[in-house]
Amino acid sequence: MRRLTAEQQQEIAAQRGATHQTRRATVPALEATLYEPLPVLDHGFVRVVDYMGDDAAIVQAARVSYGRGTRKVSEDQGLINYLMRHRHTTPFEMCEIKYHVKLPIFVARQWIRHRTANVNEYSARYSILDKEFYIPDPEHLAVQTTTNRQGRGAAIAGEAAQRVLDLLRRDAENAYMGYSELLNENASGSPTDPAQPGLARELARINLSLGFYTQWYWKTDLHNLMHFLSLRADPHAQYEIRAYAEVMLETLKRWVPMAHAAFREYRMNAATISATGIEVIRRMLAGEQVDQPSSGLSPREWRELMAVLGQGAQR
Ligand SMILES: Cc1cc2nc3c(=O)[nH]c(=O)nc-3n(C[C@H](O)[C@H](O)[C@H](O)COP(=O)(O)OP(=O)(O)OC[C@H]3O[C@@H](n4cnc5c(N)ncnc54)[C@H](O)[C@@H]3O)c2cc1C
Predict the structure, then answer these.
(1) Distance CA 99, CA 48 (A)
(2) Residue 206: its pLDDT value, please?
């Protein structure tokens, strides 16, 4: 398993070996892992390569709107919680973070839909892609779910799982073999077969499949990062992008622990309840037996509300 090239490893060692003096706020817990690749999936990683601001920067920006500042750290957490609860989002935009991510192309296609980040991707027109493709761990192989068009159902195990894995590997190997043949270029850049032309890199790549890895630099502000994480660290997100989001959540915790705590409390582990849903809860609290047909909610909404309330859907 090779996540990083020798040059990338050297670059990271050099970056981690150097320190710079600054008057700007830094966050020791994030500095401790700065530049380090945090492994995701079989060949991927996420690493924080730069950041600006900390919890105090959120508080400082909020003070501009509210005049008098908070004075104690406990008040800072209270203020950040208030901002999060009331969707006063701009103070969170004062913090920025830049990641270097290595990810399969199908994950990148979901990720790129988050338009509020700045992205610079590895160019397969300019450089040759490595022979690295994603093969799921056997525990993540599952059949198509029947209850929801998007998602996975029961696990696939044993011989059937082995067949799937063999097929995925065989097709990816074949695709890379074709790619190499079309490029007709060895490691030193000279033709493998001098009798054949080497196809342009921008064309040779077109047969590679969605499991191959790409890389990018991805920079965003804290508000948009939390929006990304609220969608992609959610159980409804596909496992593979969720694996990245979960590692990024850990970087969020290191970087802005107060914002992270507020995010978990008021966004990730919170729920939005419709007007009819609130009415159902009120009726239940008043002792009324409410069931789905009498609730005014669709069966799906009813199941979702009961899940939020930790109740069996049959009620
Ligand atoms: C579980 C799941 C399933 C999905 N399934 C599908 C699918 O089947 N097909 C599909 O195409 N996509 C799908 N998506 C992608 C989804 O529709 C969004 O495109 C993606 O999550 C990015 O969200 P966003 O637009 O809020 O983020 P960002 O692009 O980061 O935007 C953040 C916010 O900025 C505002 N904004 C940004 N750009 C604009 C704009 N041009 N106009 C107006 N407001 C803007 C919006 O308020 C937006 O919420 C899915 C996403 C998830 C999480």
Answers:
(1) 4
(2) 94
